[in-house]
Specification:
This protein is α+β, with helices and mostly antiparallel strands. The chain has three helices and twelve strands; from the N terminus they run H-E-E-E-E-E-E-E-E-E-E-E-H-H-E. The strands form three sheets. Strands 6-4-1-2-3-12-8-7 form an eight-stranded mixed β-sheet. The chain has a two-stranded antiparallel ribbon with strand order 5-11. The chain has a two-stranded antiparallel ribbon with strand order 9-10. A hairpin with a 2-residue loop joins strand 9 and strand 10. The chain starts with a helix and ends in a 5-residue tail after the last strand.
Length: about 220
C-alpha cells in the first residue's frame, strides 16, 4: 500500500482519532514514525457479543490506535509488535477497524483463538466483514479492502463528502481526510477515482454515531 504520507513526513506523531466521529481519548503517540513501511494510523475496537447482530457500541470492551503497514498488517505503535489486550471475553470477539477517509468495517464472525492468538485476515473476501460489498470492496484481484471516500466520517460515502470536505480542500496538501489516495494531495484523482465509484456505499458497523489483524486500505 501507499506509504507517501510516511515518506513525506505527514503522519502525525499522536493518534488522530480524538475528535468526532471517533471521540477516542487514547494517548498513543510516538517520538518518530517506526519504519518506512508504516502507511497510517488506524483505530481498532473490540466488541464482545454472542452474535454479530449484538455487536453494538455498548458491547465495546477495548479500543486502541495503532499502525497499518504496507503489507496490510496492523501492528502496535512500535511498528513490529502484535496488539495485546488484557481482556476476559464472555461471548465472541468481533474486531472493528476505523481509518479516516474510509468506511469502518467489523468482522462478520467472532474471531477464533489459536495458541493464544486471535488472527483474522480481512482481505481474503467480502464475506470477512459484516455486510460484505455493501461497505467493502475488491481493491485488487482477490484482495478486499476498506472503501475510500468517507471524508466526513459519518459512515456514508455521499455528496456531503464532496461538498463539505473535498471542495474546500482541493488543491491543498497535507494530512487531509479527503486525500483518499493517501498521497498527501487533495485533487481530482481523489474525487474521480475513489469518491465517485464508491459513492452510495455505507459502513455496516453498528454505531451510535496478543491479536493480529490484516486490513486492506486502497491507495
Amino acid at each position: 500500500m501507499n506509504t507517501s504520507l510516511n515518506s513525506g513526513g505527514y503522519i502525525p506523531l499522536s493518534q488522530p482519532f480524538s475528535w468526532a466521529p471517533w471521540n477516542y481519548s487514547g494517548t498513543e503517540e510516538v517520538i518518530s514514525i517506526p519504519g518506512i513501511n508504516v502507511v497510517d494510523w488506524v483505530l481498532i475496537e473490540l466488541r464482545d457479543a454472542p452474535e454479530i447482530s449484538q455487536a453494538i457500541p455498548s458491547s465495546q470492551i477495548a479500543r486502541r490506535a495503532c499502525f497499518v503497514l504496507s503489507n496490510g498488517q496492523v501492528m502496535g505503535i512500535d511498528g513490529s509488535t502484535d496488539l495485546s489486550f488484557p481482556l476476559v471475553i464472555n461471548d465472541s470477539l468481533y474486531a472493528v477497524i476505523y481509518h479516516r477517509g474510509h468506511l469502518g468495517i467489523i468482522s462478520s464472525k467472532g474471531l477464533q483463538e489459536l495458541g493464544g492468538i486471535f488472527d483474522y485476515d480481512f482481505t481474503a473476501s467480502a464475506n470477512k466483514v459484516n455486510g460484505g460489498s455493501l461497505g467493502y470492496k475488491e481493491i485488487a484481484p482477490g484482495t478486499w479492502g476498506m472503501a475510500g471516500g468517507d471524508a466526513n466520517g459519518d459512515g456514508q460515502i455521499d455528496i456531503l463528502d464532496k461538498s463539505t470536505k473535498w471542495e474546500s480542500n482541493a488543491g491543498y496538501s497535507g494530512y487531509i481526510s479527503d486525500d483518499f489516495t493517501m498521497d498527501s494531495q487533495s485533487n481530482n484523482v481523489d474525487k474521480n477515482d475513489i469518491w465517485l465509484p464508491n459513492s452510495g456505499m455505507g459502513s455496516q458497523v453498528s454505531e451510535n454515531t496478543s491479536f493480529k489483524f490484516k486490513s486492506g486500505i486502497p491507495k
